[in-house]
Amino acid sequence: MAGEFKDRVALVTGAAMGIGRASAIAFARRGSKVVLADVDTKDGEETVRFIKKEGGEAIFVKADVSNAADVEALIKKTVSAYGKLNYAHNNAAINRGIGVMTADYKENDWNIQMDVNLKGVFLCMKFEIPEMLKVGKGTAIVNTSSISGLSGHPADPGYVGSKFGVVGITKSTALQYAKTGIRINCVCPGPIRTSLFDRVVAAIPGVEAVTLERNPMGRIGEPEEVAEAVIWLCSDAASYITGVPLPVDGGLAAL
User: Fold this and answer.
1) What is the DSSP letter of 240?
2) Active-site annotation holder among 82, 87, 105, 159
3) H/E element holding 73?
4) Which of these, 93, 144, 96, lies nearest to 116 by C-alpha position?
5) pLDDT digits (tens, 9 = 90+) for 90-141
6) Is the distance from CB of 16 to CB of 36 less than 8 angstroms?
7) Superfamily of domain 2-246 in the CATH hierarchy
8) Which one, of 51, 47, 50, lies nearest residue 21 by Cα?
């Protein structure tokens, strides 16, 4: 698998930390040139320095995925820097309403969350796909949904709604481009040890203990485990797979 990624170009959004950072590092370790995008310049640049220290090649581009001009500029900078786009991991997401009941949900929080989590995935694919069509066979997009995009939970209806939307747009777009050589899938992480999970734990007392008890594997996942699923979905080993929401969740989807 490692050889096929050499000298190819991967774009990762939400790459400053967590799953996005792990994904960017995983692409770089396999020889890909990586473009990291995030609104967090400090941590994004730190990830680039880490990749370069390991001998990889990467650049950081500050971009808000909810802004069409930012995303268009991001794709142009990617192609300008490296000449093409082979892989994209559209991972950027936020959580604005942890523990808030639907009747109390602030409209602005809802709109911002949908803009980043769902519209952001749409905008990324909108500008990524034309460049991937120029490359053709072997290109791949992986969007980050969530186990919350497969089954509802009461912690945040806005987040759940946005992540169900990511699964839907992934399936629809995968069908549209199935014969072009672009494969489009999504990963659906369960509880993963990230800053987002830490915020949920801080906001809802006892949630970590309940999560551990309910999870069939009895543990919280690591960002690197999601990154490996992303790499596999982009690889030739997954060449006959498109339109799939892949749980990376310790077995929760099987309950």
Assistant:
1) T
2) 159
3) helix 68-82
4) 93
5) 999 998 888 889 999 999 999 999 999 999 999 999 999 999 999 999 999 9
6) yes
7) NAD(P)-binding Rossmann-like Domain (3.40.50.720)
8) 47
